[in-house]
Amino acid sequence: MNFKNQFEKAIYDIAIDVFGGESAQIEHNKVIYIEDKTAKSTISFAGPPKKEIDVLNVTISKELKTQILISCKDFKTTKAEPAHVQEWCSVVSTMNKHAVDSNYIGIVISSSGFSSGCEGWASSENIALIPPLKGINITFSEEQVVRMFRRVCIAILRRLKFPFEDLLIAPNLFDFCFTITSDFEGFVGANTSSRYKKVSKGWNSNFSELVNSLIGRKIESIHFSKEKFYLILDANFILSYSQNHIEFGEFDKPEIECEESPLCTKNIDNEEISFESVRDLIVGAKVTSAADFQEYIELGIDGKLNLGLMPNNRIHAMIFDEIREMNE
Amino acid sequence: MGLLKENLLLINSNGNEIDIDELFNSYSDESDRVLANDEIGTIIYTADLDVFSLEVTSTGHLIPKKVNQLSRCRFGTSIIRLQIGSKIASYSSDTIFHVKKDDYVIKVRADKLKKGMVLSTGEKVY
Fold first, then answer.
1. Looking at the structure, do residues B13 and B67 belong to the same domain, yes or no?
2. Tens digits of per-residue pLDDT, A86-104?
3. Which member of A158, A161, A162 has the closest CB to residue B47?
4. Inter-chain CB proximity B75 and A206 less than 8 Å
5. Complex-level ipTM beyond the 0.95 threshold
6. How deeply is A78 buried, as exposed, middle or buried, from its count of CB atoms within 10 A (0-12, 13-18, 19+)?
7. Inter-chain contact A183–B96, Cβ cutoff 8 Å?
8. pTM of the prediction?
9. Which fold has domain A6-188?
10. Closest residue of B to A164, CA-based?
11. How far apart are CA B119 and CA B97, in angstroms?
12. H-run or E-run covering B68
């Protein structure tokens, strides 16, 4: 199989991976023919019934006789323009118009996005655009565009299990692919980092998601093992913290071996306190706030204390009632 | 994209409210109904289910509308508070509105709506 560029190869690999080994074929300068060659409307000096195109042709369902015709645009610095979308609209609509018993749907993928004006052509002709046009100047990386394509392929494959014919009517396929890809905007702006990870999924996350999923949860237990703190919260939620990593999320069964007792201190003068006493203070209470100071994290517990999970295996608790008494 | 979860009211054909989180949690990752479930978020297919969203009209009436897909993203876009017609609501910044412009209707994102614009439904942006 010859590929014009790495982008085209990445798209082909995903199509093969999702739809199966013999589903996809890529051809350059391919002369395509319509099924009904006798149609009068196709007689012209150039164009249908034969036309040369670069096409990735994917059979998504033999039962429904449906194929996706994909056009990959890898312009690096410039965006794909309405003319590129118009060309594909023409190819797909001609193929459908003169198809005997097949259905063709079209996707145009551009590694550098689309210029304004493409959307009108695509939606009226039911051509899906990847990445989506979102009405603002947002740039998606090539890697993100490839990920969008995989997401769309998986969604189409699963959507095939349900009535599919409605997607063949404009602008339903365009809208469907827009829905599948539009949430990338929030993801791109989320600034995720490897410091925050979702347990079991391994996904990068951020402080905002940590706070949203942590606040209001009741603490069921706290553990320390192998230089890592584990906070078990209600509804099978876990927060683990070591100096550079914060992992959180729903879990099945946490495996905490070789439990140890960290050094625990409290209040302004760093008085020593036992790990058991810290546990008694926080178990049953709710997390009401959270802060990440990079060197350590601090959780507000029910407005009664701040629990600092510190480097060098230390816990520091600021117990508000005791501090108030000391001040008085 | 679209109305925030807090503004989205789902009901069945009997008029009973549907818990959105419960609906999402009732399908495993492997279910064909789950069109996407990854780092970006989750999308489920609901066109064949008894799920309707309630939309508020400018006159305060509620109109049920069939929901084909439900999306729950991990990281939403920013939130904008808008008064459109007589109702005030929070929208994600990428919510799309159809706005009248001369003889045409154009699509405008929530964060690009301006005071005085008139939607295709006749409602004015304040």
1. yes
2. 989 988 988 888 888 888 8
3. A162
4. yes
5. no
6. exposed
7. no
8. 0.83
9. Trna Endonuclease; Chain: A, domain 1 (3.40.1350)
10. B47
11. 7
12. none
